[in-house]
Amino acid sequence: MAYIPVKRPKxxxxxxxxxxxxxxxxxxxxKHLVLSLxxxxxxxxxxxxxxxxxxxxxxxxRWDDHLPSYYRGAxxxxxxxxxxxxxxxxxxxxxxxxxxxxxxxxxxxxxxSSCSKQEKAPAEFEIDMLRCIYCGMCQEVCPEQAIxxxxxxxxxxxxxxQAVRNKEQLYRLGGIRKGLIHKWNQFK
Amino acid sequence: MSSxxxxxxxxxxxxxxxxxxxxxxxxxxxxxxTRIADACNSVGIHVPCFCYHPKLSVAGSCRMCLVEQGxxxxxxxxATPTYNDDGYQTIQWMPRAVVACANTVAxxxxxxxxxxxxxxxxxxxxxxxxxxxxLDCPICDQAGECKLQEYTAxxxxxxxRFTEAKIKKGKNISIGPRVNLDxxxxxxxxRCVRFMKEIVGEEILGVVGRGGHNAIACFPGxxxxxxxxxxxxxxxxxxxMTSKDFRFKMxxxxxxxxxxxxxxxxxxTNIFIWSREQQIYRITPRQNDAVNSCWMPDNHRLNYKxxxxxxxxxxxxxxxxxxxxxxxxxxxxxxxAVSEQLRxxxxxxxxxxxxxxxxxxxLYLAGNLAQLLGISQLDIVPRxxxxxxxxxxxxxxxxxxxxxxxLDKDGRTLDDIRLGIKNGKIRHLIxxxxxxxxxxxxxxxxxxxLDYLLVIDxxxxxxxxxADVVLPGVTFAEKYGTMVNITGRLQRLNKAIEPLGASRxxxxxxxxxxxxxxxxxxxxxxxxxxxxxxxxxxxxxxxxFKGVSWAAVGNSGIPITETGETIxxxxxxxxxx
Lengths: 188, 577
Known about the structure:
The complex is a heterodimer. By secondary structure, chain A is of the alpha+beta class. Chain A has two domains: 13-61, no CATH class; 75-174, Alpha-Beta Plaits, CATH 3.30.70. Helix content of chain A is 28%, strand content 13%. The longest helix of chain A has 20 residues, at 19-38. Chain A is elongated. The two termini of chain A are 43 Å apart. Chain B folds into three domains: 9-74 and 83-114, Ubiquitin-like (UB roll) (Roll); 134-146 and 164-254, Alpha-Beta Plaits, CATH 3.30.70.20; 317-563, Rossmann fold. In chain B, 26% of the residues lie in helices and 18% in strands. Chain B has 18 helices and 24 strands. In chain B, the strands form six sheets. Chain B has a seven-stranded mixed β-sheet with strand order 16-15-21-20-19-17-18. In chain B, strands 1, 2, 3, 4, 5 and 6 form a six-stranded mixed β-sheet that branches. The A-B interface holds A 88-92, 94-95, 106-108, 111, 117-120, 143-144 and B 137-139, 143, 171-172, 247-251, 253-254.
């Protein structure tokens, strides 16, 4: 491991008497209070809210349109542009999953189908969303670029069984991913 | 130079029929004629091999086992060799590497397995092997136990320099009822070809095509349908030969392998059971040169489906009244009721049929139970079939020898029991681990005439359906125990999975019955916590088992008695050597 020396800022006498910063912080709170009372707070601008308070009034308003592009939510399976199931059920995600949320039942591709060279596809693919910790290891480990963390964040099962997502639900969530993978092209 | 009075290492070794060999700077002694690969592996220095298999002839085709070799200098005429302080001659290293599988060790030979020459040679071999390899590890059943994967990680290079199109060959070809072939994954080691030719004695597989188009194929009009065909799956170092039964069932890194023995015939083939979470996925042979070498027959290998089948009985079943259906019951009340019933039975009218598929410990407990209840009519059910001249023997019971040693029964009095049931002399019958309507040939109509039928078995059979009480036992994969094979070798059964459902190991049930039927609690048998403790007691009582303990048996077993029987395949292997 390389050591990187971090340069700490030198504090002036004003910084060290922290009362000044304390007053400034109180000023910010006061500013938000006034803006909220006037109905002009940040939530109005950023979250299309009523302008009361700096936070998003969830669940009346949702994160859906405001998620940053890097947000990672529930894992999902994707199909290729050619409609091929990208997952070949190699079970590496099941192996790596630290919460043991994933359960794959491997199966075969029908010999006559368009992607028969792939030979293998999941017969069943289950993710227990009560176990999933959204760590993204499954996406990291996947050699076929078949599992991705989607932007879905609102997961509210009403019982344990409902929390387990099956293959069909995972493909519906994942949809189609752009970009062709030629690995299983039968002419290659 | 050492003093001439002292013996030189070469003479000391020659007196033992051995030679001195230096491997990676250390001197060892090996018997003359040992292959370099075997010599290195025997001292824990791994030499990577694809084509070399100790049980097959040497092909020397994969060039993976290249090692650096050196010999003492060739002397000029009339010159005498000079020795260093340790008594060895200097080694002159050859400029190029040699294959470790096709060369044997010699006196004062030097071997280096970790030098630049070897590493570079291996890297180059792997690069060649990977030029046409499809790299479909995610769908390959061999992934995780693939030699090509392992050696590439150990010696390969991270990048691919071959930019030309790969040669396409056949994939997913069915070459037999139980084996699939993928020619693209093949490294052409020809282990499968040699196995079929040398061990099975049928020329079915061969290499066709030239150059890069070389591929393994069946000879025209032939299929790989031998009963030993699945051994090619085991010896295939890559995923070219794969099992149809195990195809896409589970990745091997999830499976736990348990060393145990096969119970389909008297040979007691050593096996590994591969299981995950109470489910058995496959069985593979385990090397034991005294029993099964490295092989096992396909029908025995595939006979594991009954373990996780729907037919298993998972709770005790009790008939509460005459003609009433069997109802599931709890263990303790059922055992109490059974023990009470057994005490009431007239021992003259009671018989016990035990299976020779039970372990020694269970047979011993069954014998004790018979003794305790005063029952004299007890026998096993003999079971025989056609021997195949290789590993399957005529005796299809795995523990006939054990039953002979412990109970002194070999099925000769079974006719009397059968007759007794027929003419009503036997009113009560205890059956342990057998379907008596099958090999014992007791018809169901006779079973229904009995006053009381107690059955201990793992799966539903005609006998359990006729029973008044069924106590769910377990299969061979769910219990510990020992068995004696036809050659008189004591071998261990290890537990691969826990007993399914509420079933209990047969020895556990028998012990409970012993306790419940008024067994003397001061005896070890009644208190024994495990089959290992019961084995200790057997060792103390039977001369054949003298000095035997669970640890002494080990995973490879020990011979305890002479039966005069031999295993044909092992005989052939020993005469070949």
